[in-house]
Design goal:
2 strands; transmembrane helix; mainly alpha; transmembrane; Rhomboid-like fold; Rhomboid-like_sf; Rhomboid family protein; hydrolase; two-stranded antiparallel sheet
């Protein structure tokens, strides 16, 4: 496997691994600087659209992305050429960050509208609905307060506390960073499936062969499912994965139409 590694894949692996080591053990503030934040966050910087894709939350996050690059990247680099593989990786990674940021703006605007609606009409049931949608941020004390608020909805002290809780939700949601090369990797996956659709891949779990086109189709449908259900307990940026698939598919479709662009 390592004997067949190609130059761009090798350099991407090295950059990601080195930055993970540096940000984990030497200069941890890089995790805050280079992660991608909501555009309205005080921590947001434009360069994060590029840097976030070279940062990872933990070893297994890094391993899964780099393993995928190592498996699918070399053959794509041999077929497309180093320049096009790098373009694919970077455009899908940066593009995923941009599209996810747009999605995040929609989510934050939706949350802020709900908070404003509650402030205009402090209804305990509506407060409980917002809390349930963001329940991964709270412990049982908040749910005990929900019951207490429901029993005395006119108490101004309780209304003020409910408003503070919702403001805390907005602040937390607006400052959750996104990291990882998953968007770029999903661009690699869709490119591989489009260019080598009938290539047999052997899965580890479950141990069985599957064609590339079916594997990527499963990932795509699974990603769309997770975007639609929007599970508040799921901290994976599924919309960024979907964005990588879409951008990668558009790029490869364009390149396949212009056969002269291959080299």
């Amino acid at each position: 496997m390592f004997r067949n590694i190609t130059p761009v894949v090798q350099n991407l692996l090295l950059i990601n691994i080195i930055l993970f080591i540096v940000s984990s053990f030497i200069f941890p503030v890089l995790n805050e600087w280079f992660a991608l934040y909501y555009i309205g966050s005080q921590y947001f910087k434009p360069f994060q659209f590029l840097t976030y894709m070279f940062m990872h939350a933990d070893f297994w996050h890094l391993f899964s992305n780099m393993f995928g690059l190592l498996i699918f990247g070399p053959l794509l680099e041999q077929f497309l050429g180093p320049k096009k593989l790098l373009i694919l990786w970077m455009v899908c990674g940066v593009g995923s960050g941009v599209l996810y940021s747009g999605y995040n703006i929609y989510r934050m605007n939706n949350l802020e509208a709900k908070v404003e609606r509650f402030q205009a009409n402090p209804d305990p049931e509506y407060f409980n609905k917002i809390v349930l949608e963001n329940r991964n941020f709270f412990d049982r004390r908040v749910f005990e307060f929900v019951d207490d608020f429901s029993r005395d909805p006119q108490d101004q002290v309780k209304i003020d506390r409910a408003n503070q809780t919702l403001e805390a939700i907005s602040d937390i949601q607006g400052n959750i960073p996104m990291v990882g090369a998953s968007g770029a990797l999903f661009g690699i996956l869709i490119a591989f499936a489009m260019l080598f659709p009938n290539t047999q891949l052997f899965l580890l779990f479950p141990p069985m062969p599957v064609k590339a086109k079916y594997l990527v189709l499963f990932y795509g449908l699974y990603t769309i499912y997770n975007v639609l259900i929007n599970n508040p307990l799921d901290n994976v940026a599924h919309f960024a994965h979907l964005s990588g698939l879409i951008i990668g598919a558009i790029l490869v479709y364009k390149w396949k139409k212009d056969r002269n662009s291959f080299y």
